[in-house]
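Exercise 7. Given the encoded structure of a 88-residue chain, write a plausible sequence.
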């Protein structure tokens, strides 16, 4: 994965799997690499610097991308990450 200054990083299992300037593109690619279509529940924890409206929009996008997946949105309050995603 090529990373440029200012890029958003997508990590799966502790490894960088996606990078780019657009958080939505990085999230979508990261979810594809996580193979979330085989899962039932995705919990999206949003960070302290992420406005709730943006987090809600991201949760809605994820639901559009993966309509069979139940998507939960939770305030995580983490300081350095826009989102932490958990799938079950």
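Solution.
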């Amino acid at each position: 994965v090529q990373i440029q200054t200012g890029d958003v990083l997508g990590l799966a299992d502790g490894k960088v799997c996606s990078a780019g300037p657009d958080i939505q593109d990085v999230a979508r690619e990261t979810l594809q690499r996580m193979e979330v279509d085989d899962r039932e529940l995705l919990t999206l924890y949003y960070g302290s610097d992420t406005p709730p409206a943006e987090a809600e929009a991201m949760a809605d996008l994820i639901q559009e991308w993966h309509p069979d997946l139940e998507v939960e949105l939770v305030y995580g309050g983490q300081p350095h990450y826009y989102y932490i995603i958990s799938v079950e």
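Remark. The CA atoms of residues 58 and 72 lie 11 Å apart. Students should compare their own answers with the one above.
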